[in-house]
From TrEMBL:
Signal peptide: 1-23
Protein name according to UniProt: CBD9-like protein
Highest taxon, organism lineage: Eukaryota
Domain DOMON span(s) in chain numbering: 66-155
Gene Ontology cellular component list: membrane
Origin organism lineage: Eukaryota, Fungi, Dikarya, Ascomycota, Pezizomycotina
Pfam families: CDH-cyt, Cytochrom_B561
């Protein structure tokens, strides 16, 4: 009889039919998670009322520092549940919140409890959890939908062995986001669906929409973005512009200025692409720093080359300056300054997302910008004075 019940449960799962009598758990195992897995069950009564207890299971290799599961598509959206070893046989559950992108802290207002079956077994951390106030995110949005976003994270390294729920945790080295149809997790009203539930629960392993991010790679992309765009806007664009005054010959524009500026454009574009990738990882493509970046890169990649080419063609015919040339010169200066300012904003933006960025970085950047700006203005002044003389 039990076998027929399980068979019928699985059949209903595949058909997408979830009657309350057929309880089920949906599972997710991130391929980059190093062996972590997560399971979720929503009792029928909770789904009908829109609030109440929900159940989830976290499993992770015991040799991890810690593993976590969180509600929402960012760590600041809702409740976070961190597990780590308490001893050779026990596991610690630490319910936490994060107000900013720094280490989340223990929150005693989250009513989450370890259930029977939790512990360390065969080298695997297992936390069977009931949470009584986890159906609503910080923004008031209910998670019980067909597009419910969750986050996960793991930190590798020596075991963190502690029974302290406020234990300091180190930054994760892999994290991700996945979206579940929680309606497929609805069913049953067991007090512990992950441990000797009766009737048995059918487990349904899903391949949801997901994003998996290596924090090591993310850090490298941040560095590449910052270095490439800073070199392009702070050093190359202004100095390659000065070449028109340093080498004032008929060949300078076509054979020196234009090729070098195109190299700077390509470098800025490459740095921009790294920045877009970082913004995608952080789910912040519409942030103020990225938007300013779109504008500055759009100007140097599209508008400036067009104005420069038109000016060059017209100058060869008339040997006179045109409005295109004036626009090219002053727009270039504006975009250069705009990009430099956005670079400074980028340091503030990055530190808000990652507090590990050295505090000296924006100071060094500001000093270099000031030196380059002073040299640029001084050289133009000397060039004009010489021409006037």
């Amino acid at each position: 009889m039990m076998g027929w019940y399980l068979l019928l449960s699985v059949a209903f799962c595949y058909l997408g039919i979830v009657p309350s009598a057929l309880a089920q758990i949906i599972n997710y195992t991130p391929s980059a998670g190093g062996g972590v897995s997560y399971g979720i069950n929503i009792p029928s009564s909770t789904f009908q009322l829109g609030s109440g207890p929900i159940f989830f299971q976290l499993q992770a290799p015991a040799d991890l520092k810690w593993a976590a599961l969180g509600l929402g598509n960012q760590m600041t959206d809702g409740q976070l549940f961190v597990i780590y070893s308490a001893s050779d046989t026990n596991v610690t559950l630490s319910p936490r919140r994060a107000n900013t992108h720094v280490a989340p802290t223990y929150d005693p207002t989250i009513r989450a409890f370890l259930l029977e079956g939790s512990g360390v077994y065969n080298g695997l951390l297992t936390a069977n959890v009931r949470c009584d106030n986890c159906t609503t995110l910080g923004n008031g949005k209910n998670i019980l939908s067909n597009r419910s976003s969750w986050v996960w994270a793991v930190a590798h390294g020596p075991q963190l062995v502690s029974s302290n729920v406020s234990e300091t945790i180190y930054q994760h080295d892999w994290h991700g986001i996945f979206t579940f149809d929680l309606k497929k997790a609805v069913g049953g009203d067991s007090s512990n669906p992950f441990f000797h539930s009766s009737p048995p629960f059918a487990r349904l392993t899903l391949n949801p929409e997901q994003q998996q991010i290596s924090d090591t790679l993310l850090h490298k992309k941040r560095i590449a973005h910052g270095v490439m765009t800073s070199v392009a806007f702070v050093l190359l664009f202004p100095n390659f512009g000065l070449l028109l005054h340093i080498i004032p010959t008929r060949y300078t524009v076509a054979w020196i200025h234009a090729p070098l500026q195109m190299f700077a454009v390509l470098l800025a574009l490459a740095g921009f692409m790294f920045g877009v990738s970082v913004s995608k990882d952080l789910q912040d493509l519409a942030g103020y720093h990225p938007i300013l970046g779109y504008l500055s890169i759009g100007g140097v990649v599209i508008i400036q080359p067009i104005l420069g080419i038109i000016q060059h063609v017209k100058f060869r015919r008339s040997r006179e300056k045109t409005l295109y040339g004036v626009s090219h010169r002053w727009l270039g200066r504006f975009l250069c300054a705009f990009g430099i300012v956005n670079g400074g904003i980028g340091f503030h933006y990055a530190q808000a997302k990652n507090p590990d960025i050295p505090l000296a970085s924006p100071i060094v950047y500001a000093i270099i910008c000031a030196l380059v700006g002073a040299i640029y203005v001084l050289w133009l002044a000397v060039a004009r004075y010489g021409v006037a003389a």
